[in-house]
Amino acid sequence: MAELVSIVVVAHQNWPDLELAVQSALCQSYQPVEVIVVDNSSTDATPRELPRLFSGRIRYVRQPNTGDAGAYNTGFGLSCGGFVQFLDGDDVLTPYKIEKQMEVFCEHPD
């Protein structure tokens, strides 16, 4: 069975780029992944659109703005995966990124 990978996305005022970031995390060639989005109190469309578009497919957490580090710490604390990938809300992952990294980890577990 494949190891779960947690992808923690930190968001603050990243809409509509955030939609692409989340899609890139969900559409990885490697599965299983869990996607956790930590929103640092965005006032844009994030709190309305993210649950509407991705309900049931991601874990969405809204918190007071603690900066990137605070949000990554929150996401890490919520993650269940044996591996964690951090992603900014205005960035995207290539479709095979997690798969290629997991291949390396499996080949070189030390």
Explain what this protein looks like in three dimensions.
It is a single chain. Helix 1 (17-26) links the parallel strand 1 and strand 2 (33-40). The chain is α/β, with parallel strands linked by helices and 110 residues long. The mean pLDDT is 97. The chain has helices at residues 17-26, 46-54, 67-78, 97-107, and strands spanning 5-11, 33-40, 59-63, 83-88. The longest helix is centred in the middle third of the chain and has 12 residues, at 67-78. A four-stranded parallel beta sheet has the order 3-2-1-4, with helices on both faces. The protein has four helices and four strands, in the order βαβαβαβα. 38% of the residues lie in helices and 24% in strands.
Question: What are the SSEs and their pairings?
Answer:
Elements lengths: L4 E7 L5 H10 L6 E8 L5 H9 L4 E5 L3 H12 L4 E6 L8 H11 L3
Parallel strand pairs: 1-2, 1-4, 2-3
Radius of gyration: 14 Å
Provide the succession of SSEs: EHEHEHEH
Approximate helicity band: 25-40%
Structural class: alpha/beta
Number of strands: 4
Report the biggest beta sheet as strand number plus sense, adding barrel if it closes: 4 strands, parallel
As an assembly, this protein is single chain
Regions with pLDDT < 50 over 5+ consecutive residues?
Answer: none
The general outline is globular
Strand order of the largest sheet: 3-2-1-4
- Terminal-residue CA separation: 20 Å
Helices, by number, come to: 4
Question: In percent terms, what proportion of residues is strand?
Answer: 15-25%
Q: How confident is the prediction overall: mean pLDDT?
A: 97
